[in-house]
């Protein structure tokens, strides 16, 4: 039997692209919004760009953590969908909305404590008058992010990835239009700068939730799930299951996000220019991350579907097909980055020093994408087989034992500055990717269902 036979993977490639493309397009929409936010804020003032970088990096951790918790719904829905058991999926959604609401309240409380201590983070004093009002507005929007996540993971689990895609696109168009009006004070509105960007983000997040609720209530496609949703009462078994899958994924993703956000705080110690360049480079790196994460999410959906059918050969092939496609995407993105690296900084700011720092960081972005793609695909594959608890320990080792200390050492001891901090990213991400792969490869080499899902 050959090591690789294209015919064995062809159908998996097709299905992953079919399911994953709407997720990717939705994720790219999020990145376009990030680009628009950064460009519009950066051309208003560089100080506001640095303030946005600080707040967005702090909240990225909270949003990543909350999104990770919501991902616990996807493998459960996928397994039921694979078995053709539609009645219980509506009950799962109802339980997820309750669980996500509780998590949203916890995140809001934690982020409020962070807000009360934001003056003690060692950031430049000139940022604070912009940071604080923007922070409060984004804090209010967290609840709506979590509710949207519940509906999105439900829809993704039944392979309806297009609905969330269109809602993300609509929300992003609303956000960009709102930015133009409120940041610069167009059409008789006051010029609010960074606060205007925050208000526009909040409004778009509320709108996306309302639209998803309307679609769920009215769509014929969701009728069978709506019936289960309406009839379901509080189910402790479902609630415990959602929590048992959601918290480990949340902590795994949260630790990954925390390593990046703590690195951003270290970058802030270098001054506003370094922080502004960091924000621009993060915006570009997040582009490839979101594209690959769309493919990773599709991989998780397919893997959980085949777990529901007890087809473990297809479980493995789906995972490796996702990895193959991700590597192709990374190579294509890296070529684009290499060609545009000298121009990227100027898209966001007129400051030549910020643009020069950004150009240097692009090489590191290209380097770490390969480790990032590996950890994304195999982390999602582990979620698909509901083997999530070990991921927390792997993430802790890769990001807190390896990445952060290396970043501090290279950045401040070796004195490479922002480049040293960023060089730690490929090291930590590759470590995580290899360990996730080894775990998935070992677990899926087992053939008994009880051992696979233990």
From TrEMBL:
The keyword ATP-binding does not apply. Its main location: membrane. The chain crosses the membrane at residues 21-42, 54-77, 97-118, 133-151, 163-183, 195-217, 260-281, 287-307, 319-340, 352-370, 391-410, 416-438. InterPro entries: MATE_fam, MATE_MdtK, MdtK-like. It is found in: Cell membrane. GO terms for cellular component: plasma membrane. Keywords: Antiport, Cell membrane, Ion transport, Membrane, Transmembrane, Transmembrane helix, Transport. It is a multi-pass membrane protein. The keyword Transmembrane applies. GO terms for biological process: monoatomic ion transport. GO terms for molecular function: antiporter activity; xenobiotic transmembrane transporter activity. It holds the Pfam family MatE. This is Multidrug-efflux transporter. It comes from Candidatus Avibacteroides avistercoris.
